[in-house]
Amino acid sequence: MTPDTAVSAAIPATDAAAWWRHAVIYQVYPRSFADGDGDGMGDLAGVTGKLPYLHDLGVDAVWLSPFYTSPQADAGYDVSDYRDVDPRFGSLADAEQLVARAHELGIRVVVDLVPNHTSDEHAWFQAALAAGPGSPERARYIFRDGRGEHGELPPTNWRSVFGGSAWTRVTESGGEPGQWYLNLFDSKQPDLDWEHPEVREEFHAILRFWLDRGVDGFRVDVAHGLAKDPSFRDWDAHTEMISGDGEARPTNASPYWDQDGVHDIYRGWRRVLDSYNPEGDPQRDRILCAEAWVSPIERLVAYTRPDEMHQAFNFDFLDSPWRATDLVERITRSLEAAQSVGAPTTWVLSNHDVVRHATRLGYPVGSPRMNGIDATCPQPDADLGLRRARAATALMLALPGSAYLYQGEELGLPDHTTLPDELREDPAHHRTKGTPEAEIGRDGCRIPLPWVGGAPGNGFGPSERTWLPQPDAYAALAANLQAGKPGSTLELYRALLATRRELDLGVGVLHWQQGYGEDVVAVVNERGTDRLLVLANLGEEPVALPDGTEVVVASGPLTPEGLVPTDTTVWARTR
């Protein structure tokens, strides 16, 4: 790898116009986006009402986190009916209306799909409990007899991502202790057995159900978790969504992450999606995006081979320290790995499972990864975090490939870092509280959005109710107060997205630029004869732009002398 190697979005001539190769997709977390009925929880009607805002923002598509029927043990990632909408969020008719309205505005719709596990209230699992050991109903899930003289010990020592054992013992119909079922997450989320053909057929049918209603693709939850090592060997490492550390210990060393069997599953899914585009028109592609916390990145890009998924989130980029050398290395390696399979890189900085980048970048460089922040933690430098977050986003949106934004980041929203424990809902918090593996949880990044500063609930809905309380800082960051205000984070995002689209940055070729020092990320995005210099200054001293460049967008103000100050990214036209 050399810093002056040209790297691109790896667009084959056969599908150079495919929308998903360069799209900017906006994640909507429905319960926290907008409340249409005043009950304090966001809903599909609220999302539909805000689609003009997303159109004006300039995104190409929205990704909706789960809105299916669910007991909400894990905020909807515990699905009891994949073919209906939870009444908390509306109805199937509301979902169809949302898709139709989005398409009228030129916005595509990607929906979440949760295939690793169902809810324990799913009809299949209830039938499995009633049918008993050895039944066809239990074969759809991973049931095993326990170890020990009376089966009193779990089948393996696997731990749940949310803390505690990954196995739950059932009480059989006669009242006696029975078999154990696998739950890599909460005990209310039993893992499906993807070796069972009926499971595969059912999800093909679920894909078709939503494709028939016009959705444009699926973000696949825990995409690296469906296949398990058939030996069910013990595994002593701490269980996290990402359990590898690169070449030294790849993720697939675990018996339940990134097993090779997942790829045959997604080849079947790709055939289903491709059948909805028989003419092969790249503008009609329906897509799959993998949430796969996989390392090294060479294993991640295997999910995006031509007959599998279209996109896979680049969490290596999300996890990068705020150091120029780290960013250059990760960007280069990501693009080169994606080129090896002819795929785009899919950039992301925040989502509903991680601390928002406006908050985590407010800590000293090199701080350990956080699983949440509360009042007992050192508090971030909010101004520093927002300045770096704006610069990081400006760098990300200049890169070739696709990109995902998380709702509210365009407002510069931080996490709620002082949310009281008694208000938290994340099962990871409740399952680990008081244990050595205690987690604060993800509630802080899932706070309802502020739309109207100073209004009840900051305009989240027609009442003052919000299912989680908003921090005081949200009032001044409300969308209405930033719209049209020069220098606001909302207007920065609008400018970045408009310029990215105008200049086709998502399909450009990168050329690393030298001579700015090791604390600067400098690259030219080239499209034909057009050249855009992207310069991100992560050092302490201001940096001069080359003579003859014209600044197009900057993440923050330049110095009076026209220099690029620390923690600032500039887009400038160059010859």
UniProtKB/TrEMBL annotation:
The keyword Hydrolase applies. One of its GO terms (molecular function) is hydrolase activity. Keywords: Hydrolase. InterPro entries: GH, GH13_cat_dom, O16G_dom_2. Residues 27-446 form the Glycosyl hydrolase family 13 catalytic domain. The keyword Ribonucleoprotein does not apply. Belongs to the glycosyl hydrolase 13 family. This is Glycoside hydrolase family 13 protein.
